[in-house]
Structure prediction request, 596 residues.
Amino acid sequence: MDKTLASLDWSLIQSFLAVADTGSLSGAARRLGASQPTLGRHIRTLENTLKVELFQRHARGFQLTPLGREMRGHAERMAEAMAGLSLVAAGGETRLEGDVRIATSVFMAHHVMPGIIAQMRQQEPDIRIDLVPSDSSENLLFREADIAVRMYRPEQLDMVTKHLGDISLGMFASRAYLDRKGAPRGAEDLHHHDVVGYDSNDDIIREMRAMGIPASREMFAVRCDNQSAYWELVRAGCGLGFCQTNIARKDPEMVEIPLAFPLPHLPVWLTTHEALRHSPRIARVWELLDVGLRPFVS
Amino acid sequence: MDKTLASLDWSLIQSFLAVADTGSLSGAARRLGASQPTLGRHIRTLENTLKVELFQRHARGFQLTPLGREMRGHAERMAEAMAGLSLVAAGGETRLEGDVRIATSVFMAHHVMPGIIAQMRQQEPDIRIDLVPSDSSENLLFREADIAVRMYRPEQLDMVTKHLGDISLGMFASRAYLDRKGAPRGAEDLHHHDVVGYDSNDDIIREMRAMGIPASREMFAVRCDNQSAYWELVRAGCGLGFCQTNIARKDPEMVEIPLAFPLPHLPVWLTTHEALRHSPRIARVWELLDVGLRPFVS
DNA sequence: GTTATGCTATTCATTATTGAATGGATAAAA
DNA sequence: TTTTATCCATTCAATAATGAATAGCATAAC
Prediction:
């Protein structure tokens, strides 16, 4: 085996990749939990050892040279292999303790998960939970999360999934709003009302059109992409809005608006990586999520 | 990104793979140029961080657990990516100095390369040469060599190759042997002579059979796989033997035995990895080998 | 122009890592 | 059995790597 290959410290490549990704020593340092001088030294050592120039030193940061760009691909392949390795390792943990990261939508994280997690903590005090609220999908391969609770069918490969059931949606308004504007009568009447909608997400519009109701972005008086904040807007009386019926019906201030047409249902999927499935603590949290979410997916 | 993934030092994986490959801390230490306690600590750190058991401690060394075996594949993928990276880096070196590893057959390394390398050193004193004599083929992907001089067409992918010409073979015997046994007359007469052959390598037998001459392993009085030692056996008068004519004819003690049938020719191929082709020092050594080998491939 | 911000390079005390040495344990060879 | 050769774990002095602090730049905003 070549001397260079054997003696070159792999952690230098780790640093190289971090600097290449973040574009600066400082950024890479933050990502790796190291300091900026350390990263600077790592890059210099790497360049000196390989006798090549990997970055152009710029006042605003480090920029890859063409050669560095060529090397980056290989470093990324190393990172992927490392991710796979780390996944196998996590799946091999045998004790019923440790951290479990649960990714789910902002809305669920706000309105559903706290109760479930509180119960989990009582039953499994040795399992610490990281809750990752996010409406963009996580990459479970890179362990951005261990278990994801999602409102759509996961499409990543090597995943174990379970469809827990469906969440029914309803249209709601606050009493204050209804006192002011009255309740809508039928689909056409919606045009005379304020509706709270999503901003960049066009789910509502597409669903309404699918129902045969003309809809456009302009019909929304107030828009918000964060679903928790969205719901607070509706509760504050900004207009009509949609919400999971199981949550909204518990709120005495909110009134459900009966609709002539049925709203779509949201499927609830539990997901984890195949390699993690046999880890006791992941399996346990999976089980508790399965049970805990049941009341919400009637 | 997961904390474990980001914070786990990749050099620990490097150590893990070395221990998995060699089966011992000491062996891994030798391979990595580190010490046995260091490797021991690395493995322990890795196991503690990932909270898994990777090896079974045995008195004779370390043995992978099933989980460790699963992880090994990923570690190997990392090593492959690392090899690719290191190759790109080596190809990106811009100076006409450094080390170049030349792999070639034991015989060539003994009888041909020294002169060529001596001349190289005069013309390019800043290029240091590692000569790797080996009759098994090198893996240029892992940079076991930078340039290989081979007697067969290389089959690895991503390789740059050049057919320099062919080497002609002849049958020779020492004067001492001929004085004792006389020269053979024709192919049938070979049975009354001692022939020095290869041991596990059956090239000679296959070639003779291809020529229509009945041959078997038993016809060899003395056998040796190392071709340099083989030739010394022939020179010492152990029997008839084959050799490159260009080399053998320079030896006043050796007499060529004229044969009625033609012997096969050996092709000479120069090989390097695609990624290294544009490195100035590799290109320079390639060029000098091309020129230097010319007299031998008439 | 001036200020604020974000970055890199350098220094130096601190900390963490390393390896030589040692002891103990096991398996193979004499 | 005794010897020999490996191997691993542990210890501790020496070494190497680290990060906080600082200074110096370049850019962007005012």
Observations:
- The CA atoms of residues 91 and 275 of chain B lie 5 Å apart.
- Residues 34-38, 41, 58-60 of chain B lie near DNA strand C (CB under 10 Å from a C1').
